[in-house]
Amino acid sequence: MSRKSFIYTITAIVLILVFFMVKDTFNQPGVEDMKAGFKEIIKYRNANNTGPVQRIYVVTVKDSVWKEMEDYGNLMPHTKYGNTKVYFFMQNANVPQNLQPGEVNFDPVFNKDCIALYEKSAMSQVAFNKHPY
After folding, report:
1. Which position has the higher pLDDT, 132 or 35?
2. What is the C-alpha separation between 108 and 22, in angstroms, rounded?
3. I need a surface site. Which of 17, 103, 124, 132 has the fewest CB within 10 A?
């Protein structure tokens, strides 16, 4: 095999590999592919960029598919040494419109309508609780 054909073969293999890597990158599953019908209602992120970042989300779902809710929580942004919470409510339920940081993130009146809570702690430990209240 001549040197020229060897270089063409290696180039073709590299281009094919790059094509498949780019294709896989753009075809990753996302929230749109989930069947539970997620809709983010409100979110909160504290302004502290030097310490722990706290993210809180309120999301409504059409169907309570527990596995998809946990997958949705895993897709949410998380900062090392920060805390991310996702509260799930059914689509037609009474949903909070205001969030605040701390242990209690919204008015306790809405607790009965919360169907699940996903939480990723500062050490990246995940907790998914069905009917947390």
Report:
1. 132
2. 46
3. 103
As a dihedral over the C-alpha atoms of residue 117, residue 70, residue 41, residue 79, rounded to 10 degrees, the angle is: 90
In 3D space, the residue among 80, 63, 69 whose CA is nearest the CA of residue 127 turns out to be: 69
What distance in Å separates the CA atoms of residue 23 and residue 4, rounded to the nearest whole number? Answer: 29
Cβ(97)–Cβ(42) below 8 Å: yes
Asked if the model's pLDDT at residue 33 lies above 70, the reply is: no
The residues facing 127 across adjacent strands are 119
Give the Å distances, CA to CA, from 83 to 42, 66, 98.
Answer: 17, 21, 18
| Cα–Cα distance, 38 to 94 (Å, whole number) | 16
Q: Which residues, in sequence order, are bridge partners of residue 84?
A: 55, 120
Residue with tokens 């780019």: 22
Nearest CA to 73 out of 47, 34, 26 is that of 34
Contacts of 60 (CB under 8 A, 6+ apart): 38, 39, 41, 88, 89, 90, 91, 93, 95
Q: What is the mean pLDDT of residues 70-96?
A: 88
Q: Which two tokens stand for residue 21?
A: 């890597």
